Structure prediction request, 320 residues.
Amino acid sequence: MRLLMTGGYGCIGSWVARLVLESGGELAILDLKEDRHRLDLLLDRDRADQIKYIEGDVAEPDQVLRAVDAWGPEKILHLAGLQTPTCRANPILGARVNVIGTLAIFEAACARRDQISRVVYASSAAVHGPPDAEVTGALADNVRLAPLSHYGAYKVCNEHCARVYWLERGMPSVGLRPWTVYGVGRDFGMTSEPTFAIRSAALGQPYHISYGGKQDLQYARDVAAIFLLALERPFEGADAFNLRGAVEPIEGFVAALEQAVPAARGLVTHGDRQLPIAPELDDSRLQAAFGPLPRTPLGDGIRETYDRFVALNEQGRLEP
Ligand SMILES: NC(=O)c1ccc[n+]([C@@H]2O[C@H](COP(=O)([O-])OP(=O)(O)OC[C@H]3O[C@@H](n4cnc5c(N)ncnc54)[C@H](O)[C@@H]3O)[C@@H](O)[C@H]2O)c1
Prediction:
């Protein structure tokens, strides 16, 4: 597959890059600047050199179309975006990148519809608001969406616009809604703290996770693999899907960490504030559309992440 990936130097993008190159795919990354610090944690230099880098801002439609014409992709994976804290601090910038940027991707894809067969994009579990006391069981993906953040509202808007691009212009698309992605390379965003806790344990340092409550922890490699399945498996139409990993109260995450890594005992503490996103999401429609899907057990994902951080630290490649 010849793929153009926006925001490819981010956490999820770096994992996708690794999987695409391992499977012999051809990849170009469209990003604001060439910042390989996450790729360097996951890929050999030689492998990373196989990626074509295209500098550009997704919120500039001309730059997106130029990137598409320069690379000639069959599919686009759109991951570029600003995360919750940045959107909260600057909602206008957030809308420019997360909403206008997504429209620019769809416009470019539709302009080259003869060549581009699908757009897959990152939505977010933040399209859902906090858990509703009256709803029991896991929340389906096609319920009424009531986000509590600008970031979540932008993602809802993108899902609706994606559907309109299918209805009016025939562009197929898949939106995926990660919750808390964890793993090497996760170093920014509201839900990056579990990864910082694992990283601190690898350095033998204490860490306080500022929130508590339940969340859905999804291993970065699994999330990247599911994005690839959404690009590769047959699909028509426009739809957006919940993703599901390990749904745990934060105490369960700490217990899993301490069990996987006995040396971490007592190092990680946490707060008690529930993040305002329903933690129990039903991914059965995603399973039906693209399954079977990978789901690394939480303890295994934590252990792999810890071991990688330890190795990087021993090589002097982990900043304190
Ligand atoms: N990580 C998670 O837990 C999580 C959860 C839900 C949804 N998501 C979504 O998944 C996507 C990827 O997440 P991530 O964790 O890899 O993010 P990240 O913050 O690690 O990376 C985002 C990338 O987008 C790039 N970018 C930002 N603005 C850009 C612009 N204007 N033009 C081009 N590139 C730009 C950044 O340079 C960066 O490389 C995002 O859309 C995010 O909202 C992530």
